[in-house]
Amino acid sequence: MSFSSNVKKEIGTINNLAKKEQIKYELIGYLISHNSEISKNKIKYSTESDYNINRFSKILSNLNIEHNIQISGNLFVITAKVPKIEEIKIENENIKICNEEKLYNEKEENRRAIIRGVFLGAGSINNPQNKYHLEISFSNKTNLKFAANLLKLLQINSKTLITKDKCSIYIKEGEEISKILALMGASNAVMKFEDIRIEREMRGKINRLVNCETANLNKTLNAAVEQIEAIQKLKREKRFSKLNENLKEMAELRVEFPDLSLTELGKKANPPVRKIRS
Question: What whole-number distance in Å separates Cα of residue 42 and Cα of residue 68?
Fold first, then answer.
């Protein structure tokens, strides 16, 4: 099972179905997501997830909304009459948020329920071992703008993508993804995500240190090659013997130890040279 599926499974089993106010707002989240549509005064919601369809069905049942579940290929499809909810309106066979100010001023648990609903409705999250990317798709710009503002109100930073064929919110920062998972109630997913994030950050630091050391070593070796070539030229032109004894000693050490820095070469001199200027 994918990381995204595990998140939805965990959220889908949150035990709050008896709280009718909360689940009404979760239903609103489902309805404004991309996977909900209106046809002949009926809502139709489609998903590949059996956990998700069960959650949606239970929400409808607890709100006394009659519905029907069918299977179409690899999709579960729920159809029901459009519920009478004052916070949404039907416009050109589109479900749109209305009375936004009321929703922004709702209790935080209800605002969280809306975000939980839109994620369950049409959200996905990549395996964090590969990359950080959470995305939620919407059926229109009105709902996208509302959800983006709601996330901002809940102190979650997100970005929007609007094209001819797509309206979505996405988050690519690990810390923000962790915050939205916690906000939706996916505590187990948060712990797993944070474990992976810590491991990735440690691996990144190690790689940066290795790269830095490699760059420094390459710099030292390149300088050493130039210095050795200069020493060999002095010897060929019989000018090496004219150097003072300290310089000759350092030159011979450079030829013998091409991978050492000047400071390290100075320590091998007799007596050791404490300060070497490059």
Answer: 11
